[in-house]
Amino acid sequence: MMLKGWNSRYNEIIKEFQYQRKKDNESAIILDSLLKNKNLLKDIKKLIENQNVFIIGAGPSLSNSIPFLKNKKNIKIVADSAVKLLVENGIKPDIVITDLDGDLDVLKKIGRTKTLFVVHAHGDNISKLNFVKNFKNCIGTTQTKPFGKLYNFGGFTDGDRAVFLASYLDAKKIILFGMDFGNRIGRFSNTKPSERKIKLKKLKKGKNLLEWLSSKTKSELFTTSYPVAGFKKISYRDLDIIIT
What we know:
Number of helices: 9
Number of strands: 9
Strand order of the largest sheet: 6-5-4-3-2-1-7-8-9
Structural class: alpha/beta
Largest sheet: 9 strands, parallel
Radius of gyration: 16 Å
Mean pLDDT: 92
Shape: globular
Strand content: 15-25%
Protein backbone atom coordinates (compact mmCIF):
# COMPACT_ATOMS: atom_id res chain seq x y z
CA MET A 1 0.00 0.00 0.00
CA MET A 2 1.28 3.48 -0.92
CA LEU A 3 0.63 6.84 0.67
CA LYS A 4 -2.37 8.42 -1.04
CA GLY A 5 -1.18 10.98 -3.58
CA TRP A 6 2.38 9.63 -3.79
CA ASN A 7 2.08 8.51 -7.41
CA SER A 8 1.45 12.12 -8.47
CA ARG A 9 4.54 13.24 -6.52
CA TYR A 10 6.59 10.51 -8.20
CA ASN A 11 5.41 11.62 -11.64
CA GLU A 12 6.59 15.15 -10.77
CA ILE A 13 10.03 13.80 -9.78
CA ILE A 14 10.34 11.80 -13.02
CA LYS A 15 9.53 14.89 -15.07
CA GLU A 16 11.61 17.38 -13.08
CA PHE A 17 14.78 15.25 -12.88
CA GLN A 18 14.29 13.47 -16.23
CA TYR A 19 14.53 10.03 -14.66
CA GLN A 20 13.50 6.88 -16.48
CA ARG A 21 10.66 4.93 -14.93
CA LYS A 22 11.93 1.82 -16.74
CA LYS A 23 15.32 2.07 -14.97
CA ASP A 24 13.62 2.55 -11.60
CA ASN A 25 11.58 -0.60 -12.24
CA GLU A 26 14.68 -2.51 -13.32
CA SER A 27 16.48 -1.52 -10.14
CA ALA A 28 13.49 -2.55 -8.02
CA ILE A 29 13.37 -6.01 -9.63
CA ILE A 30 17.06 -6.56 -8.91
CA LEU A 31 16.80 -5.42 -5.28
CA ASP A 32 13.78 -7.64 -4.69
CA SER A 33 15.73 -10.64 -5.99
CA LEU A 34 18.62 -9.94 -3.59
CA LEU A 35 16.62 -9.56 -0.39
CA LYS A 36 16.06 -12.38 2.05
CA ASN A 37 12.45 -13.25 2.68
CA LYS A 38 12.46 -11.90 6.24
CA ASN A 39 9.46 -10.01 7.61
CA LEU A 40 11.38 -7.19 9.30
CA LEU A 41 8.77 -4.48 8.84
CA LYS A 42 7.03 -5.54 12.04
CA ASP A 43 10.32 -5.04 13.91
CA ILE A 44 10.71 -1.56 12.45
CA LYS A 45 7.12 -0.70 13.28
CA LYS A 46 7.68 -1.84 16.88
CA LEU A 47 10.57 0.63 17.17
CA ILE A 48 8.67 3.56 15.67
CA GLU A 49 4.97 3.30 16.47
CA ASN A 50 3.84 5.87 19.05
CA GLN A 51 7.46 6.82 19.82
CA ASN A 52 9.39 10.12 19.71
CA VAL A 53 11.71 9.47 16.78
CA PHE A 54 14.87 11.32 15.75
CA ILE A 55 15.56 11.73 12.02
CA ILE A 56 19.22 12.55 11.41
CA GLY A 57 20.61 13.97 8.17
CA ALA A 58 24.06 15.08 7.04
CA GLY A 59 23.41 18.81 6.77
CA PRO A 60 25.72 21.57 8.09
CA SER A 61 23.99 21.64 11.49
CA LEU A 62 24.73 17.97 12.20
CA SER A 63 27.92 18.73 14.17
CA ASN A 64 25.98 20.94 16.56
CA SER A 65 23.53 18.11 17.21
CA ILE A 66 26.11 15.52 18.29
CA PRO A 67 26.39 16.50 22.01
CA PHE A 68 22.59 16.39 22.35
CA LEU A 69 22.21 13.11 20.47
CA LYS A 70 24.91 11.35 22.51
CA ASN A 71 22.80 11.56 25.65
CA LYS A 72 19.47 10.43 24.22
CA LYS A 73 18.08 6.91 23.90
CA ASN A 74 15.34 7.82 21.44
CA ILE A 75 15.07 5.80 18.24
CA LYS A 76 17.45 7.24 15.66
CA ILE A 77 16.69 6.90 11.97
CA VAL A 78 19.77 8.02 10.05
CA ALA A 79 20.41 9.04 6.44
CA ASP A 80 23.46 7.10 5.28
CA SER A 81 25.80 10.10 4.84
CA ALA A 82 25.37 10.95 8.52
CA VAL A 83 26.20 7.45 9.76
CA LYS A 84 29.98 7.84 9.82
CA LEU A 85 30.00 10.89 12.11
CA LEU A 86 27.51 9.29 14.47
CA VAL A 87 29.48 6.06 14.72
CA GLU A 88 32.71 8.01 15.31
CA ASN A 89 30.97 9.69 18.25
CA GLY A 90 29.65 6.50 19.75
CA ILE A 91 26.05 7.01 18.58
CA LYS A 92 24.36 3.87 17.28
CA PRO A 93 21.82 4.24 14.47
CA ASP A 94 18.74 2.08 15.03
CA ILE A 95 17.65 2.35 11.40
CA VAL A 96 19.72 3.43 8.40
CA ILE A 97 18.04 4.81 5.27
CA THR A 98 20.29 4.39 2.26
CA ASP A 99 20.50 4.28 -1.50
CA LEU A 100 24.11 3.11 -1.05
CA ASP A 101 25.90 6.38 -1.85
CA GLY A 102 27.30 6.84 1.66
CA ASP A 103 30.53 5.47 3.18
CA LEU A 104 30.22 1.79 2.25
CA ASP A 105 32.97 0.69 4.63
CA VAL A 106 31.08 2.12 7.60
CA LEU A 107 27.77 0.73 6.35
CA LYS A 108 29.33 -2.71 5.96
CA LYS A 109 30.70 -2.57 9.50
CA ILE A 110 27.39 -1.77 11.17
CA GLY A 111 25.58 -3.99 8.70
CA ARG A 112 26.72 -6.94 10.80
CA THR A 113 25.00 -5.54 13.92
CA LYS A 114 21.32 -5.37 14.87
CA THR A 115 20.90 -2.06 13.02
CA LEU A 116 18.02 -2.24 10.55
CA PHE A 117 18.68 -1.12 6.98
CA VAL A 118 16.12 0.30 4.58
CA VAL A 119 17.72 0.16 1.13
CA HIS A 120 16.22 2.11 -1.74
CA ALA A 121 16.26 1.05 -5.39
CA HIS A 122 16.38 3.64 -8.17
CA GLY A 123 17.74 3.83 -11.69
CA ASP A 124 21.12 5.27 -10.68
CA ASN A 125 22.20 2.68 -8.11
CA ILE A 126 21.73 -0.60 -9.95
CA SER A 127 25.47 -1.35 -9.90
CA LYS A 128 25.59 -1.00 -6.10
CA LEU A 129 22.60 -3.11 -5.13
CA ASN A 130 24.60 -6.30 -4.63
CA PHE A 131 26.04 -4.60 -1.53
CA VAL A 132 22.85 -5.42 0.39
CA LYS A 133 24.33 -8.86 0.98
CA ASN A 134 26.49 -7.19 3.66
CA PHE A 135 23.45 -6.25 5.75
CA LYS A 136 22.19 -8.71 8.32
CA ASN A 137 18.79 -7.02 8.70
CA CYS A 138 17.47 -5.31 5.59
CA ILE A 139 14.24 -4.38 3.83
CA GLY A 140 13.91 -2.73 0.44
CA THR A 141 12.00 0.24 -0.92
CA THR A 142 11.10 1.52 -4.36
CA GLN A 143 9.72 4.81 -5.62
CA THR A 144 7.51 2.95 -8.09
CA LYS A 145 4.66 0.54 -7.35
CA PRO A 146 5.69 -1.80 -4.49
CA PHE A 147 5.80 -5.54 -5.13
CA GLY A 148 7.39 -8.71 -3.78
CA LYS A 149 9.54 -7.82 -0.77
CA LEU A 150 9.65 -4.09 -1.58
CA TYR A 151 7.75 -1.25 0.09
CA ASN A 152 7.00 2.33 -0.91
CA PHE A 153 6.59 4.66 2.07
CA GLY A 154 7.15 7.78 -0.03
CA GLY A 155 10.03 10.24 -0.15
CA PHE A 156 12.89 11.09 -2.49
CA THR A 157 16.24 11.65 -0.75
CA ASP A 158 17.51 9.52 2.14
CA GLY A 159 16.59 12.21 4.67
CA ASP A 160 13.00 12.85 3.64
CA ARG A 161 12.42 9.11 3.03
CA ALA A 162 13.30 8.61 6.70
CA VAL A 163 10.56 11.07 7.67
CA PHE A 164 8.05 9.40 5.39
CA LEU A 165 8.91 6.02 6.95
CA ALA A 166 8.43 7.33 10.50
CA SER A 167 5.11 8.93 9.54
CA TYR A 168 3.89 5.81 7.72
CA LEU A 169 4.60 3.72 10.82
CA ASP A 170 2.81 6.16 13.12
CA ALA A 171 5.57 7.83 15.11
CA LYS A 172 4.18 10.03 17.88
CA LYS A 173 6.69 12.85 17.34
CA ILE A 174 9.24 13.24 14.54
CA ILE A 175 12.22 15.50 15.25
CA LEU A 176 14.74 16.52 12.58
CA PHE A 177 18.48 16.92 13.20
CA GLY A 178 21.00 17.92 10.54
CA MET A 179 18.20 18.23 8.01
CA ASP A 180 19.16 21.52 6.36
CA PHE A 181 17.48 22.54 3.13
CA GLY A 182 19.23 25.85 2.49
CA ASN A 183 22.03 26.76 0.05
CA ARG A 184 24.78 25.04 2.04
CA ILE A 185 25.72 21.39 1.72
CA GLY A 186 27.08 19.58 4.77
CA ARG A 187 30.67 18.38 4.60
CA PHE A 188 29.51 14.91 5.61
CA SER A 189 27.27 14.50 2.58
CA ASN A 190 30.06 13.25 0.27
CA THR A 191 28.97 15.69 -2.44
CA LYS A 192 31.53 16.43 -5.16
CA PRO A 193 31.80 20.05 -6.42
CA SER A 194 30.46 18.93 -9.79
CA GLU A 195 27.35 17.51 -8.07
CA ARG A 196 26.53 20.60 -5.99
CA LYS A 197 23.85 21.99 -8.32
CA ILE A 198 21.89 18.75 -8.55
CA LYS A 199 22.32 18.15 -4.81
CA LEU A 200 20.74 21.51 -3.98
CA LYS A 201 17.92 20.77 -6.41
CA LYS A 202 17.30 17.42 -4.68
CA LEU A 203 17.31 19.09 -1.26
CA LYS A 204 14.75 21.61 -2.46
CA LYS A 205 12.56 18.76 -3.69
CA GLY A 206 12.97 16.90 -0.41
CA LYS A 207 11.84 19.98 1.50
CA ASN A 208 8.85 20.37 -0.79
CA LEU A 209 7.84 16.76 -0.16
CA LEU A 210 8.11 17.17 3.61
CA GLU A 211 5.88 20.22 3.45
CA TRP A 212 3.35 18.14 1.50
CA LEU A 213 3.60 15.32 4.05
CA SER A 214 3.04 17.73 6.94
CA SER A 215 -0.54 18.28 5.76
CA LYS A 216 -1.25 14.53 5.74
CA THR A 217 0.58 12.98 8.69
CA LYS A 218 -0.80 12.28 12.16
CA SER A 219 2.68 12.62 13.71
CA GLU A 220 3.74 15.82 15.47
CA LEU A 221 6.57 17.41 13.50
CA PHE A 222 9.58 19.35 14.82
CA THR A 223 12.94 20.50 13.49
CA THR A 224 16.13 21.63 15.20
CA SER A 225 17.52 22.46 11.77
CA TYR A 226 16.46 24.55 8.78
CA PRO A 227 12.85 25.84 8.94
CA VAL A 228 10.34 23.65 7.10
CA ALA A 229 6.70 24.65 6.73
CA GLY A 230 4.55 22.36 8.86
CA PHE A 231 7.43 21.56 11.25
CA LYS A 232 7.76 23.48 14.52
CA LYS A 233 11.24 24.99 14.96
CA ILE A 234 12.46 23.98 18.40
CA SER A 235 15.58 24.46 20.53
CA TYR A 236 17.41 21.59 22.21
CA ARG A 237 16.37 22.98 25.60
CA ASP A 238 12.68 22.97 24.70
CA LEU A 239 13.05 19.61 22.99
CA ASP A 240 14.25 18.08 26.28
CA ILE A 241 10.87 19.00 27.74
CA ILE A 242 8.67 17.46 25.05
CA ILE A 243 10.50 14.13 24.72
CA THR A 244 10.71 13.28 28.43
